[in-house]
Design a protein that fits this description.
It is a single chain. The chain is mostly helical and 150 residues long. It has helices spanning 8-23, 28-35, 39-47, 54-63, 93-98, 101-111, 116-134. The chain is elongated.
Length: 150
Amino acid sequence: MNVKTPNAIDSYVGARIRTRRQLLGMSQERLAEQIGVTFQQVQKYEKGINRIGASRLQRIAEVLHTSPSFFFEQNESQPLSLQGLALPDNADPVAEFLRTKEGLVLNRAFLKIADPDIRETILALVKAMAQAESGPDLPSIANITRPPLE
């Protein structure tokens, strides 16, 4: 194994740290401050370049309000294996989207909308826009109704 090539498990754990940190809207600098390292060290952890010791991983989990096992989960009940680290042909596109910056921003914004009618309208709009791109499986944009304003 090349010394400069990150280990697949270290890269996976780092990616899970990055995803969790971004979901919480936390910067690398803030995480670094909370765990007592530089933000450059956090960058190396997230890229899998530097390995994370057990006590440091425990502290990261505390700061990110999760358990250390979260960083090793591939699916809810599956332990970490090297087999799932490469992106398979049948990868879940929703999970992949949620790992992107756009996916995180969209989900955070959507969760802030409390009114269920507005949420339904947004879903209908997005489905209609997707239909325009992909075909007739989704409802027409003409069928979108906005809830009455109060």
